[in-house]
Write a structure and sequence with these properties.
Layout: E1 17-19, E2 22-24
Length: 46
């Protein structure tokens, strides 16, 4: 596993859920319009 260091304001642990032909992660509504980064920390189940 690679190690990445990211400076930011908040961290939320979540699970990626299937939607249509892709997937999504839900974040708080107050994050709308913010720049975010998603880091996969485990191998996918599929």
């Amino acid at each position: 596993m690679d190690r990445h260091e990211i400076e930011g304001h908040e961290v939320i642990d979540g699970t990626v859920k299937a939607t249509g032909n892709g997937a999504h992660v839900l974040v708080p509504k107050r994050w709308r319009g913010a720049d975010v980064k998603i880091v996969r920390t485990t191998e996918p189940d599929e």
